[in-house]
Amino acid sequence: MTEFILTEEEIRRRLDLVAETCPFVARAVSLVGYPGERRGEQGFRTFMRVIVGQQLSVKAAATIRDRVEALVEDPANPDCYDAISDEQLRGAGLSWQKISYARSLCETVRDGTLDVTALPNLSDDEAVRAITAVKGLGVWSAHMYLMFSLGRPDIWPVGDLAVRVGAGRIVERVERPTEKECEAIGERWRPHRSAIALLAWHYYSNAPAID
User: Fold this and answer.
1) 177 and 201 assigned to the same domain
2) Where are the alpha helices (DSSP H) in the chain?
């Protein structure tokens, strides 16, 4: 699957389709409107940015990302990271653990353990397995890449807190669902769960909590 499916038009089409049989989704869309398209670039640079930004605020992640990328000649080329030392990366704001992850990512991309050019042609499950084989990249990271870089239409990132909270509010749950509970909630929305995840984020940010 190489086509980026999760376009703004397709998000709206899929949400409208789900809303025909799911009053929860119909109500959520009527309250907060449609979420927009979110598209990221494919390849090594995106994975490096994921590692840099882990467990940081958006602002802090962007600051450190810019510092790191300013050190290398071509941030999209893993070979360029060989020219900078661990101390330089530490000075840019990376923790020693993230430096280890960054070096591992460079090595796995270079030796083909993670073939970023092959990911668009893999199934969702195959792509998740390939990405999570890299130290420092977990299921959440894989799901974000599949949704925003590859545009896959049926990703359900229950490891994301805002998705769980948003989905719980959409189905009018008072308590936040666990990951397992959120998996079960999402079953009704196959094969359109990426659009629902976008709606859940949108709802989390824009709709009032249940009293």
Assistant:
1) yes
2) 8-19, 23-32, 44-53, 58-71, 86-92, 96-110, 124-132, 139-148, 161-170, 179-186, 193-206
**CB-based contact 153:192 (threshold 8 Å):** yes
pLDDT digits (tens, 9 = 90+) for 89-105: 999 999 999 999 999 99
- The angle formed by the CA atoms of residues 39, 43 and 47, to the nearest 5 degrees, is 85
Does residue 75 form part of some domain? yes
Separation CA 126–CA 104 (nearest Å): 20
CA atoms within 13 A on the CB side of 84: 26
The reply to whether 3 falls in a domain is no
Are residues 106 and 140 part of one domain? Answer: yes
List the domain range (segments joined by +) for residue 109: 44-144
**For the whole model, what pTM was predicted?**
0.91
Q: At which of 144, 175, 196 does a domain end?
A: 144
Find out whether 34 and 57 touch, Cβ atoms under 8 Å: no
Flag residues of the chain having pLDDT under 70.
1-2, 208-211
* 2 assigned to some structural domain: no
| Residue 71 CB neighbour total at 10 angstroms | 16
pLDDT, tens only, 59-69: 999 999 999 99
Give the count of domains, the chain. Answer: 2
Asked whether residue 168 is domain-assigned, the answer is: yes
Q: Residue 34 has what pLDDT?
A: 97
